[in-house]
Structures are given as structure tokens and as C-alpha cells.
User: Which sequence fits this backbone?
């Protein structure tokens, strides 16, 4: 059972996530964060802001996600992630990752890409040019390919 509630961020809680966002984007103003969240939340099925909340209702992590079609297939893209927990960072990460895998599979994605952090990650997260670049982040397969299944069977 998950210790954290992982769900789409409610518009009323955007300001509560701002202190977390400044850990990754210290020059991002509150109005810019509100605008970015509004842009992501108002696009039909293009992106979402996901939040991890502890049992007391405090936000312990956030990420931006978007479903993309790429040359390798359908992809759940996670360009922006911030986890902040003094007591259970690993637990927040594990629950967030489990949620993202489940979301990716539900959306028919074959891979999950989590971007590496760079100084301007928050600026790049909605830019089409950067979304097609593979030099940042790493891929986690969500559905094993036929070759991967063969490799797994041969290891047993």
C-alpha cells in the first residue's frame, strides 16, 4: 500500500507547490509558475502536474508529465520532477514512480522518460524542440519488447 497520495494537482494547491519548484528553478517567479501550471492543466490530454501528498496533506513531490508520440512509440514524458522529503525521500520517489508507470501503461505508452535536471529544465519542459532530444534523461520501458522477453526467458 502506498504511503503517499499521488494525483493530479488541484488548481487551488498550485501556490503550495511553489516552494518545491524554487528548489529546481530559483529564478522562476510565482506568477510564472501559476502560468505554467495553468498552461499544462488547460491543455486537453497534453500534460498534467502530478503531486505526491503525505498523510498529513503536505506536498512532498511534484512532476510535470505529458504523453507524446515519438519515433520509438508512445512515451510518457516527465520533464520536471522535484521530490522534497526530509524523512522519506525514497518512499516518495517509489510511490511517484509506481504512479507514473501505471499512468504510462494506462495511456498506452511503451516508455517512460524522466529528464535529467539542468538549470533551465522548467523553461524547456514545454518546448517541442527539446521534447524530441534524447540526450537528456533516461528511458524506462513500460512494456517489454519481444527481444527483452527473450532475454528474460534465457536468464531463467
Assistant:
Amino acid at each position: 500500500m502506498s504511503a503517499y497520495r499521488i494525483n493530479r494537482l488541484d488548481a487551488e494547491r498550485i501556490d503550495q507547490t511553489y516552494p518545491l519548484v524554487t528548489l529546481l528553478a530559483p529564478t522562476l517567479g510565482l506568477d510564472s509558475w501559476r502560468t505554467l501550471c495553468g498552461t499544462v492543466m488547460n491543455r486537453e490530454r497534453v500534460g498534467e502536474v502530478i503531486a505526491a501528498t503525505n498523510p498529513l496533506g503536505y506536498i512532498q513531490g511534484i512532476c510535470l508529465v505529458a504523453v507524446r508520440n515519438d519515433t520509438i512509440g508512445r512515451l510518457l514524458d516527465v520533464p520536471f520532477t522535484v521530490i522534497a522529503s526530509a524523512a522519506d525521500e525514497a518512499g516518495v520517489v517509489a510511490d511517484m514512480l509506481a504512479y507514473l508507470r501505471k499512468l504510462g501503461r494506462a495511456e498506452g505508452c511503451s516508455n517512460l522518460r524522466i529528464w535529467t535536471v539542468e538549470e533551465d529544465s522548467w523553461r524547456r519542459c514545454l518546448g517541442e524542440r527539446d521534447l524530441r532530444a534524447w540526450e537528456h534523461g533516461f528511458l524506462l520501458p513500460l512494456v517489454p519488447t519481444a527481444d527483452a522477453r527473450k532475454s528474460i526467458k534465457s536468464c531463467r
Q: What stands out?
A: The chain is about 40% helix and 25% strand. Strands lie at 5-8, 47-53, 59-70, 73-83, 111-114, 138-141. The chain has a mean pLDDT of 79.
